[in-house]
Automatic annotation (TrEMBL):
Domain of life of the native organism: Bacteria
Name of the protein described by the UniProt record: Cytidylate kinase
Organism the protein comes from: Streptomyces desertarenae
Gene: cmk
The enzyme's E.C. designation: 2.7.4.25
Subcellular location field: Cytoplasm
Ranges of biased composition (kind: Basic and acidic residues): 196-214
Record's keyword annotation contains Transferase: yes
Keyword terms of this UniProt record: ATP-binding, Cytoplasm, Kinase, Nucleotide-binding, Transferase
Residue ranges of the region described as Disordered: 82-102, 196-215
Tagged with keyword Cytoplasm: yes
Reactions catalysed: dCMP + ATP = dCDP + ADP; CMP + ATP = CDP + ADP
Length: 243
C-alpha cells in the first residue's frame, strides 16, 4: 500500500475519510502546541517529527557515534528502534523500549540534532516511519515538522506554514526554558542558537525547512496560541466541508 494512501483496509465504507494536516515552520513558531491542540479538538492523531529526529540524535550520542561524522551516522541510522505514541493528550517517544521524552530535550541533543537530521540515510529512515504512522491513523493526523508539506506528505489535505519574528520565538523558548527550571536563561543567546538552527535546517541539501507552494502561511507573532489554534481548526473544517 502506498505510504500516503488514504484507505485503511479495516475502515467501513461509511467512515469519514481520514484528514491529513501538515504543519511546518521554524523553531518556536508554535508548531507543537498548535498541532496538539488542533488534533485534540478534531479527534485526530498527532505526530511530533522533531521528537523523532531528537530521538535518533540522542541514540547516536549515547552510543558514542560522532554526530559530525556523516558516514558514521549514516551507517548507524537503521539501528535504533523509535516508537511514537500519537495520542495528542499524551504523545510518547521511546528508543529501544526506553522512554526518551526527557533526554531528547537536553541542550546537548538540541545542539546536535541539525547535524544528524541533515544525513540523508537518517531522513529516509524517519520519513518512512512518518508515512507509515500517517497512513495508519484511523481518523487522520496532524503531523508537524520542517518538511512535512514538501516531502513527507506532499498530498496532505491541508498544509500550514507557521512563522513568527525571531524576537517572539526567542521569548517563547526562553519562557519555556525558565518554566523547566533552567537558571540564567539569556534571551540573546537563545535567539542566536535558534537562528543558527534555522539556518542549518533551511540550507541542508536533503529536504530543507521550506514552505510548500500550496501551504497557508500564518504569522503568529501577534497572535495568542488560542487564536492560532482557532485559525487552523477553521482551515481544516473548510477543507473537510469542501470534500
Ligand atoms: N501564539 C503564541 N503566543 C505565545 N506563545 C506561544 C504561541 N504559540 C506557542 N507559544 C509558546 O511558545 C513555546 C514554543 O512553542 P512550540 O509549540 O513548542 O513551538 P515549536 O514546536 O514551533 O518549536 C511554548 O511554550 C508555547 O506555549
Ligand atoms: N520534519 C523535521 C522535524 C525536525 N527536524 C529537525 C530539525 C530541527 O532543528 C530538529 C528538532 O525539531 P523540533 O521540532 O523538536 O525543534 P523545536 O521544537 O523547534 O526546538 O529536528 C527535521 O529535520 N525535520
Amino acid at each position: 500500500m502506498a505510504a500516503t494512501s488514504r484507505q485503511a483496509s479495516s475502515v467501513s465504507p461509511d467512515a469519514p475519510v481520514p484528514v491529513i494536516v501538515a504543519i511546518d515552520g521554524p523553531s518556536g513558531t508554535g508548531k507543537s502546541s498548535t498541532s496538539r491542540a488542533v488534533a485534540a479538538k478534531l479527534g485526530l492523531s498527532y505526530l511530533d517529527t522533531g521528537a523523532q529526529y531528537r530521538a535518533i540524535t540522542w541514540w547516536m550520542l549515547t552510543h558514542g557515534i560522532d554526530v559530525d561524522d556523516a558516514a558514521a551516522v549514516a551507517a548507524a541510522a537503521d539501528r535504533p528502534e523509535i516508537l511514537s505514541g500519537t495520542d495528542p493528550a499524551d504523545p510518547t517517544i521511546t528508543v529501544d523500549g526506553t522512554d526518551a521524552s526527557g533526554p531528547i530535550r537536553t541542550q546537548e541533543v538540541t545542539a546536535a540534532v541539525s547535524a544528524v537530521s541533515a544525513v540523508p540515510e537518517v531522513r529516509a529512515r524517519i520519513t518512512e516511519l512518518q508515512r507509515a504512522i500517517a497512513a495508519g491513523a484511523p481518523t487522520g493526523i496532524v503531523v508537524e515538522g520542517r518538511d512535512i508539506g514538501t516531502t513527507v506528505l506532499p498530498d496532505a489535505d491541508l498544509k500550514v506554514f507557521l512563522t513568527a519574528s525571531p524576537e517572539a520565538r526567542a521569548a517563547r523558548r526562553g519562557g519555556e526554558l525558565k518554566g523547566n527550571g533552567e537558571q540564567g536563561v539569556d534571551l540573546e543567546a537563545t535567539r542566536e542558537a535558534l537562528l543558527r538552527r534555522d539556518a542549518a535546517d533551511s540550507t541542508r541539501k536533503t529536504s530543507p525547512l521550506k514552505k510548500a507552494d500550496d501551504a497557508v502561511e500564518v504569522d503568529t507573532t501577534e497572535l495568542t496560541l488560542e487564536q492560532v489554534v482557532e485559525c487552523v481548526v477553521t482551515l481544516v473544517e473548510e477543507k473537510q466541508q469542501a470534500r
